[in-house]
Write a structure and sequence with these properties.
This protein has twelve helices and twelve strands. It has about 375 residues and is an alpha/beta fold. About 5% of the residues have low confidence. The structure holds nicotinamide-adenine-dinucleotide and 2'deoxy-thymidine-5'-diphospho-alpha-D-glucose.
Length: about 375
């Protein structure tokens, strides 16, 4: 019998890359993309796989316990890769309740439905897996303690042995204590705790991974990189929060998807794995690379759009620095990032410029209206 795997949030940014990878790589699985299609969900992210025989889309809210339990039974689900979430920090500052509902209660609802269904089977949890995708933001923020004058390894997606000249001496490890600051990271931390509690209490075979900032095609243009590419092409201001000094650790989204595939199949039950590229950037330095590369690809004069940089009021509670140590994943499962950062960012910018219709549909609101009318009677 074919394995049935549910991927939640498959119409979003990272989820769509995971769905694409699994549908293409595993014709022997039934891949079920479960998504509510919030503003962040977009089925046109998956046009290239939507007609494959091993792919199915189900529009469903992860908080709908009954519907999900029914789906588990009907599809005889053996594995869940859970990415559905409210994911944008700025939105969480404005509307924390939506984040608590989806990220905490939604995850709990999936766990409870999976528990009831799997425990009802003769083989129970054997061959089953609940894999929860989380974020490095649950660990809080790191200090910037790099000695003055020492430059970080900007131009490389560094290997684990090279990463010590980053923006600080500390990293987030799998053992780092949770210390979330934003409503988003607090809600993700809550969901992570529930997942681990279901392993510790009921013996559910769970895995949690915590990843750093992703970049790449199909990211909703409210997040830094696609927002800025879109604004540069439209000659709009680029709102840099605070002084642009905050540090993020960037990973190409397809490398995250490959890590998810590896961990889903080879990761140890009840373990946590950190995923990151040892690739720290100060926002302002990253933004300058994005401007330079976008101008080059648009055929504009070098640095023509640097004057679009506009310093604005900082994000409330803005975390100073994230930096993931992914040595465990590299050593135990042999994963490593495939792309140098410069290559990845150029590939990403080229994609957005080649797919301006995708950007325009999302930003004009047409996409939302279209999907609402398409799905209102289902
Ligand atoms: P996204 O916002 O692009 O996509 C989220 C998807 O979840 C959308 O398709 C949306 O429709 C769906 N969704 C939201 N609420 C839902 C609900 N109640 N029921 C069903 N579906 C719902 O997010 P993303 O950036 O792709 O992130 C995916 C996951 O990875 C999240 O759990 C996020 O916390 C985590 N993560 C993201 C990053 C990053 O840099 N983007 C890094 C580390 C971890
Ligand atoms: O670290 C992983 C997290 O990365 C994920 O868990 C989140 O889902 C994802 O959204 C991302 O969170 P960030 O808050 O780091 O990403 P964002 O793209 O919103 O912002 C990146 C940095 O850029 C951050 O320091 C804030 C800053 N920023 C962002 C925006 C949107 C600006 O300066 N201006 C902006 O307009």
């Amino acid at each position: 019998m074919k394995k049935s795997i549910v991927i939640t949030g498959g119409a979003g940014f990272i989820g769509s890359h995971v769905v694409r990878l699994f549908v293409n790589k595993y014709p022997e699985y039934n891949i079920i993309n479960l998504d509510k299609l919030t503003y962040a969900g977009n089925l046109s992210n998956l046009k290239d796989v939507e007609n494959k025989p091993n792919y199915k889309f189900v529009k469903l809210d992860i908080c709908d316990f009954d519907a999900f339990y029914e789906l588990m039974q009907k599809e005889k689900v053996t594995g869940i890769i859970h990415l559905a979430a409210e994911s944008h920090v700025d939105r969480s500052i404005k509307d924390p309740f939506t984040f608590a509902r989806t990220n905490v209660l939604g995850t709990l609802s999936l766990l409870q439905a999976a528990k009831l269904y799997w425990e009802s089977l003769p083989e129970k949890y054997e061959g089953k897996r609940f894999y929860h995708i989380s974020t490095d933001e649950v660990y809080g923020a790191l200090e910037m303690t790099r000695p003055e004058g020492v430059e970080p390894p900007f131009s490389t997606t560094a290997s684990s042995s090279e990463h010590h000249l980053a923006y600080g001496e500390e990293f987030f490890y799998e053992t780092t204590k949770y210390n979330p600051h934003s409503p988003y990271s607090a809600s993700k931390a809550g969901s992570d705790h529930f997942v681990r509690a279901f392993h510790d209490t009921y013996g559910m075979p769970t895995i949690v991974t915590n990843c750093s900032n992703n970049y790449g095609p199909y990211q909703f243009p409210e997040k830094l990189i696609p927002l800025f590419i879109n604004n540069i092409r439209n000659k709009k201001p680029l709102p840099v929060y605070g002084k642009g000094e905050n540090v993020r650790d960037w990973l190409f989204v397809e490398d995250h998807a490959r890590a998810i595939d590896l961990i889903f199949h080879k990761g140890k039950i009840a373990e946590t794995y950190n995923i990151g590229g040892f690739n720290e950037w100060k926002n302002i330095d990253l933004i300058k690379v994005v401007i330079k590369t976008t101008d080059k690809l648009l055929g504009r004069a070098e640095n023509e759009d640097m004057n679009l940089i506009t310093y604005v009021t900082d994000r409330l509670g803005h975390d100073a620095r994230y930096a993931i140590d992914s040595t465990k994943l590299q050593k135990e499962l042999g994963w490593e990032p495939s792309l140098q950062f410069e290559e990845g960012i150029e590939k990403t910018i080229r994609w957005y410029l080649d797919n301006q219709e995708w950007l325009d549909n999302i930003t004009s609101g047409e996409y939302e209206k279209y999907y609402e009318s398409m799905y209102k009677n289902r």
